[in-house]
Amino acid sequence: MPELAEVEFFRRRWDEAARGKHVVRVLTHDTKRLLRALNVPHFRRALEGARFKSSETAAKQMLFRFNDDLWLGVHLGMSGELTVAPADHVPGKHDHLVLVTARHALVFCDPRMFGRVDFHIGTTPPAWWSKIAPAILSRAFTPSAVQAFLTRRRRAPIKAVLLMQEQFPGVGNWMADEILWRAAIHPARAAGSLRPREVRALWRQCRQVCRDALDKIAGRSGKLPSDLNVNIPTTWLFRHRWQPGGRCPRTGLPLAHATIGGRTTCWSPARQKLVSDSQLKALGGTPSKRRALPRPGSKHVPSNSRGRQTIASASQPLPPARRPQQSTLPRR
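Below the sequence we write its predicted structure tokens.
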């Protein structure tokens, strides 16, 4: 799923091609489920002739404003992307929304159709936009706010907690792995077991990874990159997490993989270590109250179809996990 910086990348594509231009035609696949929130004929009539004024992103969503009272929301879902084509573009099977201007066609393509289009007419922001949590780079995202949130979800694995959009808007699977790797926190640690200095390190790396991703992926401080991943440095975990025989770019030792909190996860065992309950107590942390993980070979160890160990939460060291089958493309 596109995350914070990928969403900003796609927003900039449309914005740079057509901001200030008028929509001359709206093409839709009316029966597709990503348009389910719309009265599609009314939507087309409202946008045709409207001027594209501005755009912005929040979390994993985009907002495009037309005239003074038209609000178009786009959520890319799992496989969606925004592209720019010539004005005579003929929509393909997966091009479910196309806004045509005099020079370009703004295309929302979504093969798996987990995305969504929202629309609102009014002078005030719609609820689907204003309810999004404060950005990680905003002043509202403080160490104390993070600590309080982790305390409320103390038994959940920290990897799963980082994916909760009500506190970490825009963070998805690869960003969560990157944050935890940089902060040297094992993804299976119970959220309530983090010590104060670890919470602060987590807060700091959340903000730093967001800044770095926006700069390298979305070209926030300059020109829009030609593609999503071209500027990502090899010093990031991202470049190594799905490579065959991938190694930690800091320690040089092998990476590990498992399903943690329901999501495929990568970490560096040499850098991100689990600690025992007695160690946590001695250091002022709160041990998880859940059972220790079953050992390898136990019939109670749940696993997915690829054989990766599935972990709910843990404060015990994990056995080495099998690597997932590799893809020819970078996985996010």
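Helices lie at 4-18, 40-47, 127-130, 143-152, 158-162, 173-183, 196-216, 277-282.
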